[in-house]
Design a protein that fits this description.
28% of the residues lie in helices and 38% in strands. By secondary structure, the protein is α+β, with helices and mostly antiparallel strands. The strands form three sheets. A seven-stranded antiparallel sheet has the order 1-2-3-4-5-6-7. A seven-stranded antiparallel sheet has the order 10-11-12-13-14-15-16, with helices on one face.
Length: 328
């Protein structure tokens, strides 16, 4: 009889534990739902610079313009209710390790002024308006009517990098590719340069966000038999891409141009020359010729390129110049 009673007691105990767990789970779930609803119910507004949460002021935002001979920009200054300057929001950029000033990556940062620490804004949907900045501060629990939240500052600023994760990945990949900037194919440097059209595709520009046609030309050095005009030797040393913005007049309404499409030599296309590893070495556009590694800019009077209309001949000239500079 005692054994039966013990079994029943164990079953009752198990049921009580199960009920307690269920109630605890329901209670925790209720708290989470209530908290989420409470957060969603908060109305964040910016009125004459004052940051209001449910009509209660928690801080103030002000646009600060910086202008001098070398700088012309603006940032947003945040002060708490005591008037203490606590945060700055900025729009920033870094230059591409591969294309340098020809390509810039833009991103947004928040700075905790008291410690002088900047970090990337951690919301991929963020865009720089006063209301979005206010929402970011409130949703991240960085600011309330009592001032700043130290634990949130640690989580969203102190422990974060200045570059957002996607840019960190891009920069790392470009730096790894840049290591091959000095790579050169083993061949006889004195051999003549030859350029041949390969194909045309379309895609995003290498240096901007626009859609372009990409006409590829392969660059070789070699020797031809003067009697047959056939190559005795030929070495692939690099390639060039002529980027031309897509227009209906050029390729129709399709974003897929014919494979044999070539840019008009008189058009304002951008020409980029790469080594065989895919590292950009030089470019030409708007009468400006530049090399990337090392970075040098040559104006229209410094080269003969402006007098050359043929795409192939321009590439041949650049290829020869890069070989002479020991870059290609």
């Amino acid at each position: 009889m005692g054994t039966i009673q013990s079994i029943m007691d164990i079953k009752i105990l198990k049921m009580n534990i199960y009920n307690l767990k269920t109630m605890s789970f329901k209670y925790i779930f209720f708290l989470l739902v209530t908290t989420c609803i409470s957060m969603q119910a908060q109305k964040v507004k910016v009125k004459k610079g004052d940051i209001l949460v449910d009509k209660v002021k928690v801080g103030h935002i002000e646009k600060i313009k910086v202008k001098n001979d070398s700088l012309n920009e603006a940032f947003y200054k945040i002060v708490d209710n005591s008037g203490r300057h606590v945060f700055n929001f900025r729009n920033e950029f870094i230059v591409s390790p591969l294309f340098l000033d020809d390509k810039k990556y833009f991103f947004h940062t928040i700075e905790y002024v008291i410690k002088g620490k900047r970090a990337a804004v951690q919301d991929p949907k963020y865009y720089p308006t006063e209301k979005q900045m206010a929402k970011y501060l409130i949703s991240s629990n960085l600011l309330d009517n009592d001032g700043v939240n130290d634990s949130a500052i640690e989580e969203f600023i102190i422990s974060k990098d200045i570059l957002p994760p996607n840019l960190q990945k891009i920069v790392k990949e470009e730096e790894e590719l840049k290591a091959y900037a000095s790579f050169k194919v083993d061949r006889l440097i004195s051999d003549p340069v030859f350029v041949f059209f390969d194909r045309t595709t379309s895609g995003t520009s290498a240096v901007s966000d626009g859609m372009v046609t990409k006409s590829r030309y392969n660059i070789f050095q070699g020797i031809k038999d003067p009697k047959t005009n056939e190559f005795i030797s030929k070495t692939f040393i690099g390639y060039a891409i002529a980027e031309d913005f897509i227009t209906s007049e050029k390729v129709g309404w399709s974003t897929n141009p014919p494979k044999d499409y070539r840019p008009n030599p008189k058009d304002n296309y951008k020409l980029i020359v790469y080594n065989i590893k895919g590292v950009p070495l030089a470019s030409y556009q708007f009468l400006t010729y530049k090399t990337y590694h090392p970075y040098e800019i040559f104006g229209p009077t410094k080269t003969d390129l402006r007098g050359i209309n043929s795409v192939e001949e321009r590439i041949k000239y650049i290829g020869g110049d890069l070989i002479e500079k020991n870059i290609l």
